[in-house]
Design a protein that fits this description.
98 residues, alpha+beta, two-stranded antiparallel sheet
């Protein structure tokens, strides 16, 4: 059994601001299926770091030369939560007009 946790207590944070335009950011991302060049994995699902860097650079880790290298996928969940809340608000608004 493996689990991944990240420190997230408010006691460790400052300059806290809400995520804005999450739905817009999420809809600009493109999920892809690919094979790793080293042959280790086939038909893997994910995102391309260079593409994510253009939309959500705070979720991309760069190499020593400053080139996008990896994505902090667990942090993406905060954007997904805010995007779902936006969609729910829009749906609730549509329902209330009926």
């Amino acid at each position: 059994f493996t689990s991944v946790t990240e420190t997230s207590s408010i006691t460790l944070k400052e300059n806290i601001n809400p995520i804005t335009n999450a739905l817009d950011s999420i809809t600009k991302l493109a999920g892809v299926i690919y094979d790793r060049k080293d042959g280790s994995i086939k038909h893997e699902a994910g995102l391309i770091a260079e593409d994510v860097d253009k939309i959500l650079p705070n979720l991309v880790k760069k190499d020593a030369s400053g080139n996008p290298e990896s994505i902090m996928y667990t942090k993406l969940s905060a954007y997904l939560i805010e995007a779902v809340k936006t969609l729910k608000n829009e749906l609730d608004s549509i329902k209330s007009k009926k």
